[in-house]
Amino acid sequence: MTHRVEIAGRPVGHDQPAYMIAEIGINHNGSLELAMKLIDAARVAGCDAVKFQKRTPEECVPMDQRDRIRSTPWGEMTYMEYRRRVEFGEQEYRRIDDYCRDHGMTWFASVWDPSSVDFLEAFSPAAYKLPSAMLTDLDLIRRLRATGRPLILSSGMSTLEEIRRGVETAGEDNLVLLHSTSTYPCPPEELNLRMITTLRQEFDCPIGYSGHEVGLQTTVAAVVLGACVVERHVTLDRAMWGSDQAASVEPWGLMRLARDIDVVEKALGDGVKQVYDSERPARDKLRMTR
Q1: What residue segments make up the domains of the chain, in order of their start?
Q2: Cα 249 from Cα 22, distance rounded (Å)
Q3: Fewest 10 Å CB contacts: which of 25, 109, 201, 211?
Q4: CA 134 from centroid of its chain's CA atoms
Q5: CA separation (Å) from 199 to 131, 207, 218?
Q6: Is 3.20.20.70 the CATH number for 5-286?
Q7: How far apart are CA 117 and CA 142, in angstroms?
């Protein structure tokens, strides 16, 4: 029987409505005001949680890329300066934590390094996510497991063997595994949504979907295939500057996605054939033999 997970008291599993995560990531572009607007968009849409990304640039940026010049909305700067520019610190996360608590919104973050785990532990996050890029960092998985908090693993850019190794290291208890393709935006022919079925057959934990495609219909299809967690990036405007904006969903789209998932989940039913009361008048009128 597949393990069920609880995130901030909300059950997550294949017998539950899909858990919706609005991935803010770094779409705030270093602006706390913009981050608050994105939290509001997720809340209005009915998402269960918002998620950020937390890096320690000194640990995450490769040495050969630190001094590369990058054009940004704030002018030209080194890649290292840019990474620091878009990274929230304690003051910003304190404001985010207070705002989410005041508005009944769950928040947590993807972490890219051990120092980021130490940083976020001060906020007692509801869960952690390990990004696809770090799935083979088994030491980081162990560090996250040591917190005792629910863990979400994303499986983009990974082989099935790498996924198995990551899940084996984490253990399947209190774990959610997300199918994903790490292309931004991802063409439909590379989404490979049937991997959701493959992962459900192989692993004894809730399976979800982290999508980076343009459009909403394929994310709804992921739920039909059994994804019990859905994660999509959110933005105020897909034309904004930033590497993830084009693969994100604008507020009105996030509302439509939540609505459509709710309708589809109701329509799926339980697979047991029955004659509904609403059918009986037509049955009595039209069925010649009973």
Answers
A1: 5-286
A2: 9
A3: 201
A4: 15
A5: 17, 7, 18
A6: yes
A7: 11
pLDDT tens by residue, 231-276:
999 999 988 877 888 889 999 999 999 999 999 999 999 999 999 9
Question: Cis (ω within 30 of 0) for the bond into 11?
Answer: no
Q: How many CB atoms lie within 10 A of CB 70?
A: 14
Rounded Cα–Cα distance for residues 85 and 11 (Å): 36
- The enclosing H or E element of 258 equals helix 251-268
pTM (predicted TM-score): 0.94
DSSP state of 245: G
Looking at residue 102, its amino acid is D
Other Cβ atoms less than 10 A from the Cβ of 114: the count is 16
- pLDDT higher than threshold 60 for residue 160: yes
Phi, psi of 164 (to 5 degrees): -60, -45
The string of pLDDT tens digits covering residues 27-51 is 898 899 999 999 999 999 999 999 9
For residue 278, the surrounding DSSP H or E stretch is: none
Q: And the tokens for 10?
A: 């909300």
Token code pair at residue 90: 């304690």
DSSP-derived 3-state class of residue 224: helix
Q: What share of the chain is helix, strand, coil (3-state, %, to 5)?
A: 40, 20, 40
Query: Measured at the alpha carbon of residue 8, what is the angle toward residues 87 and 97, in degrees to the nearest 5?
Result: 35
Confidence of residue 1 (pLDDT cuts 50, 70, 90): low
For residue 122, what are its two tokens?
């001060």
Residues 30 and 81 sit within 8 Å (Cβ to Cβ)? no
Quote the distance between the C-alpha of residue 169 and its chain's center.
21
Q: Does the pLDDT of residue 53 top 70, yes or no?
A: yes
Cα separation, 110 vs 129, whole angstroms: 4
End-to-end C-alpha distance for the chain, whole angstroms: 40
